[in-house]
Amino acid sequence: MIYQWAHGAKVHGRLSPQLAGEQLEALRQQRGGLTAVVVVAAAKPAASPLHAAFEWDNNLAANHYREEQARHLLRSVVVLTSASEEPTRAFVIVSGAADTDRYESISVVMADPAMRAGLLVRAHQEFLAWERRYHDLAELAGLFTLGREVFAA
Q: Are residues 104 and 66 in the same domain?
């Protein structure tokens, strides 16, 4: 089997996707399945090929974890704008300077043509990633076709 990193993947350290895939598959077979706990435990020894994929400095790792918690918090807040509307995310990611992303209020993004266009670009990228992830499910073929039509317009 040939392993590669998924489009846009950001993997810590210098680990080849082939080695990572082979190690993870061997671990899956050995353990009867994979969980994050199993993978971290297997990667903990410095001699493990997976070791390089993780941040082992606890201060840095703790800060990265808190940043992930902050992203989760920003993704979790929804807003109701009227009694008849479904809740929508209060904050969405917009592209920032120097390839950094920042979160902005959905109302600000929707009112700014450039930010709204950027949000549509991001939605299209996420749709394509979702389509790649689930392309084997024939039950979703119609949805993929509809999505391509929407983004082609």
A: yes
Q: In the chain, how many domains are there?
A: 2
Residues 75 and 130 in one domain: yes
Q: What is the mean pLDDT of residues 102-120?
A: 91
Q: Provide the mean pLDDT of the chain.
A: 89
Contacts of 91 (CB under 8 A, 6+ apart): 74, 75, 77, 103, 104, 105, 106
Angle between helices 17-31 and 36-43 (to 10 degrees): 110
Q: Are residues 7 and 21 in the same domain?
A: yes
Q: Give the structural domain span for 7.
A: 1-54
Mapped onto helix, strand or coil, the DSSP state of residue 112 is coil
Whether 69 and 21 share a structural domain: no
Query: Which pLDDT tens digit goes with each residue over 52-101?
Result: 999 999 999 999 999 999 989 998 998 887 766 788 889 998 876 555 77
**Which positions ≥6 away from 72 have C-beta within 8 Å?**
none
The C-alpha atoms of residue 153 and residue 150 are separated, in whole angstroms, by 6
